[in-house]
Predict the structure.
Amino acid sequence: MVSRVIPVEVFDLVIFGGTGDLARRKILPGLYRRFLAGQMTGDSRIIGAARAEMDDAAFRKTVAEALEEFVPEKHRDPATVRDFLSRLHYVAIDAKGEGGWSALKALMRPDVVQAFYFSVAPALFGDLALRLKSHGIAGEEARIVVEKPFGRDLATARALNTTLAQHFEERQIYRIDHYLGKETVQNLMAVRFANILFEPLWKSEYIDHVQITVAETVGVEGRGAYYDKSGAMRDMVQNHIMQLLCLIAMEPPYHFDPDAVRDEKLKVIRALDPVAPEDIVRGQYLAGGGQGSYLDHSENPTSRTESYIAMKVHISNWRWKGTPFYLRTGKRLRARASEIAITFREPPHSIFDDAKGWRENVLVIRLQPDEGMNLMVMIKEPGPGGMRLMQVPLDMTFADALGAEHAETPDAYERLIMDVIRGNQTLFMRGDEVEAAWAWTDPIIGGWEARGDKPQGYDPGTSGPEDALMLMHRDGRRWRDIR
Ligand code: BG6
């Protein structure tokens, strides 16, 4: 099996914040890998734009250093790197003033795909959008790419949407949630909608509950200032986990088409019930394992920001009434492990006397690492001794199933940037989707702020606060181990 690379049209991609951390770590190495794969066709170019004064040569040098740091050596053939670097240009730009804009205009070609990546603080989105238009740089078909955080509540998200809408149409705006660029996240849709097997059972009649876990081992060091104003709810649940929830819970779209998919996701978000305070557990990691605590990394020594959250969520619609979704995410946990586990109900009646080994079927979709699927099924325990039952996994680790040439899947950013160039918005969040997600999130955060709730301390290297276990135990269920 050879992976197919579909060339994209010739483009000029401007990266505002071209010397920033995201550009260095993700965007430019991702573009290099697409170049290597033969996808950056013709004389496509990347134009870095930032405040610092530098020329093309200096910018190319910073990018060369980023590639050295973030692309494995075996992929850095010197001639290929040189060729890639020759497509890079740089313009020093003043986002809040007029400096540099005419130079950018002179550089842009009107007859190729134009994309502008706003890899800058959201406070600058409006300034950039305004100047791209007032200087006549961005044409009617130009695309803009914006990063999270897209607002910190409904009011700020709305304000951002309004600002962008003054200069660009919704069809031109690509709001990134990098989880949607992950291979296995898209596989959720393939599993559900390209197989007849699961969909008839995909409802509360047959599904007892769903668990979504995004566990990380990293802490917030180095990002304390941003994170403290955000916390796990804003940083992970409102966007990434919400997207996973949508892909699991949505109705089949009539077509794999941007608005058809996004319409269905939006309906899920709108059907989310408010969450009761007793269904939320927030935690903050303590010091341990030679590492400082959350508070050691925060600028606020009495911060109540959560680095962990677990919650029970209900979706009020015909399909899901009565099936809880348990969500959890946290930093400094035992392992880096993201998975979705769908636990089916027990068969209505057992014909077997031996119910000892009895367990429900569970479909586990592993997002990272070791991407794959595992379906836990009951079989007869081999050997004499009557009909004894045992649970075994039908295991499909994608790396084993797909072979070596698929071992390195493209990074989420590579896929998403190429989708921008192709003009495909399926994997990007629409403005109304983001606003609906905030409309659900705001009262939850407002609730714990008003109550003055404090997060519970948890030891690093564990699966989070004790109370999170209780969240499931009291329903007669338990979390899957994080490993
Ligand atoms: C980011 C969050 O959006 O996603 C980070 O801001 C988090 O806090 C990261 O660590 C997780 O992404 P991934 O791809 O490593 O699972």
